Known about the structure:
The structure holds two protein chains of two kinds.
Chain A: E1 6-15, E2 18-28, E3 33-37, H1 44-52, E4 59-64, E5 67-68, E6 79-82, H2 94-104, H3 109-122, H4 138-150, E7 156-160, H5 168-185, E8 188-193, H6 196-202, E9 205-210, E10 213-218, H7 220-225, H8 230-235, E11 240-250, E12 253-257, E13 263-268, E14 277-282, E15 287-290, E16 302-311, E17 318-323, E18 329-333, E19 348-353, E20 358-362
Parallel strand pairs in A: 3-8, 3-9, 6-7, 7-8, 13-20
Antiparallel strand pairs in A: 1-2, 1-4, 4-5, 9-10, 11-12, 11-14, 12-13, 14-20, 15-19, 16-17, 16-19, 17-18
Chain B: H1 4-41, E1 43-47, E2 50-53, H2 56-63, H3 65-99, H4 103-113, H5 120-131, H6 136-143, H7 157-181, H8 185-193, H9 198-226, H10 230-236, H11 243-253, H12 257-282, H13 286-292
Antiparallel strand pairs in B: 1-2
Helix pairs in contact in B: 1-12, 2-12, 3-4, 3-7, 3-9, 5-10, 7-9, 7-10, 8-9, 9-12, 9-13, 11-12
Amino acid sequence: MTTPDLEACAVVKRFGAHTAVDALSFSVARGSFFSILGPSGCGKTTLLRMIAGFIAPDDGDIRIGGRSMHGVAPNRRPVNMVFQQLALFPMMSVGENVAFGLARRGVARAERLKKSEVMLERVGLGGAGHKRVDELSGGQRQRVAIARSLVLEPTLLLLDEPLGALDLKLREHMKIELKQLQAAFGTTFVYITHDQSEALVLSDHVGVMSQGRFEQLGTPQELYYAPATPFVAAFVGANNRIAGRAVGVARGIVELETKTGWTIHARANGPIQPGESVEAFVRPEAASLGRDAAELPAGQPAYAGEVESLLFDGANSAVLLRESRTRLEFRIALPQTGRFADLRVGEVVQFSFDPERAVCFAAPAAAHA
Amino acid sequence: MLDSGTSGWRNRLMLGLLLAPALVWLFALIVLPHLDLALLSFRERIAPREYRLSLAQYRIFFSEPLYWHIFVRTAALSALATLLTLLIAFPVAWTIAKLARGRASSLLFVVCLIPFWVSETVRTLGWMILLRESGVLPGLLVKLGITDVPVELLYRDGTILVGLVYTSLLFMVVPLVSSLESLDNALIEAAYNLGGNGWSVLRQIVIPHAAPGITAGCIVVFMLTLGNYLTPNLLGGKNSQWFTEQIYAQFIIRFNWEQGAAFGFLLLLLSTTMVWLGLKLSGQRFGEVMRRA
């Protein structure tokens, strides 16, 4: 097995009494796309800045390409970074921006020009070398920032929410472009974001971070289909969250009863004792919808609900229901067939879901005091 | 409903009234005296109360080596003082703009400002108390055994430079701080991340970004220094040979207003040329630089 490009061993960073990064350990395999996903303030930026060398960890070690980075200055690390606001040098042309790092390494001028031109070509900006930075569009700047880093052939490319400043359409486009660039260059990417869709689309592996720790580390599929903690279930993708008390556990299926008396079934994650406070998560697309109970898959407990609102969003359309007896909110993705295109607000429909596709956790004590 | 014609006229009147003090000041105290000085400098007295148009005053300046020498010396020392001020002010401005946070930053700024609460004369006399032969510093040097007898530290070129730099520091710090504050820290980090070191970051990122502020500070300090009368006169004494003293001597001592006016114009020409040269060399535009100042 080859050495991973990035290894963090029990890395700790404290700011006063606040622990920003709490004994974090993980490794990133060569050539993979690794994302750190978390809400703002979870410590992901601190972690990235420690990898880049702008701040030193209080404890633990960061190894890049098998070499400990303890005491190595940021300009001596085999790491380059794409900054949140890109930080292109406005006092230089596009070509000079790309050649900056090469010049600092003492590469001769002719060689520098050639290499930066080739790199600009590879990111689809051939011939733009003489342009000023402010003459470029947002997407083009993005590519310059990546070219400026990749021209140095780093072991690791760090990306600090580089798509945050772009508008939605361009962001969707750049997502695809980033993935293609990473595949073409084969460089290991470490990407931080608070946008779960960016992390899911781009990454080979994702670490979901909260309060300085990884809640779960896995492939996007694992995070989505088998969340390890309630936080991951709630943070990654849309989910219906149903809190209540476990009234019975049988063959790994928990029978959950909400405060208002609605009973559902969900697969237990970890040991759950009857009587415990629990919360279950059901994906909107895991539930089936029918005008009549006979339309629903056989063998699943069925419930009735009143249509509260229709959330039309093309392929991502959904309907928001209120469970008839308890008025609890439940979101269901509308099937692509257009079968429910004539659904009206106020209509009463039947719905059900496979308990195996719903997941139930013991509730964190603080949440149900 | 307001009649737009009337309101337009009223707006213009308002603007005129608001600008009036500045316009009066500009015209009566700057344009008029300079026009008169220009006329004075181009005439020559041939008999009591009899004058004629001539270039004699300017001819004297170029033919008399003393005047010429003092002129060049003043320009060179002013340029040197400007450079020294820049070198000293830059780390100060960097600390205020980039290293100090919140209260500490404003406190440092106030520390730079405090000397200006005292009049320039008193400040300069303070330096004299420190540096004169029977003063604090020569006494200290004797006590430390560095010199056998107290040395006169006044009336030297170095002393003049110290005084000029001290007086000018704030005028360099202010534009530098404002131009350094607008520098995004991410640019500095990005430069380090791409392998830059302290020197290359300074040369390729910080200085190009701060160039308008540097130029603005240099222009202001150079003009203040060139036109300074008090500091060179008090700290340099008879040896100071500052060009403003020549102008003073012509006007007040020799009562040769024609000659004094010509000198005044030569000084104006010198500062204009140096400012123009500074802008050309640093590739800056006057408007941008003045906004920083």
